[in-house]
Amino acid sequence: MNTDKKLLRTLTKGDILLAAVLILVSLVWFASSFASDEESLTLKIYLDGTESVSVSLASLSEEKHYTVGGCIICADSEGVCFEKSDCPDGLCIKRGRMTRAGDAMACVPERVVVRLYGSDDFDTLAY
Asked: 10-residue block means of pLDDT along the chain (127 residues)?
């Protein structure tokens, strides 16, 4: 108990205020990273490494289908998925739906890559 009292005596009001400000800033930054992801997603579809489609998901009011190579990609304001592909195994279709910045999927036999980009330059999946 004696050491606890010494520790409390060495902390000043400035130390406590600094700690509170740092915690508050961290919480605001963490919460804003989740809020900004959904509003600013950009879908980019590449065929043979060349960008074929670039569209903001927020601008999509209804479901849209994009035919690139032998694939049909379905996109709406909430996410993207492969709907149909001419590839033999169909792994791209089994991948499911992408909804977060940094998500990517590909149909290797058809040479189609689909990525979702956020407003930040860094990977928002790694916290």
From this structure: 63 86 88 60 93 90 92 92 91 90 91 86 51
Which CATH number is associated with domain 40-117? 2.60.320.10
Domain limits, the chain: 2-37, 40-117
Contact, 82 vs 94, CB < 8 A?
no
C-beta of residue 100 within 8 angstroms of C-beta of residue 117: no
pTM beyond 0.85: no
| Residue 60 dihedral angles phi and psi, to the nearest 5° | -85, 115
Calpha distance 91→105 (Å, rounded): 10
Residue type at position 109: P
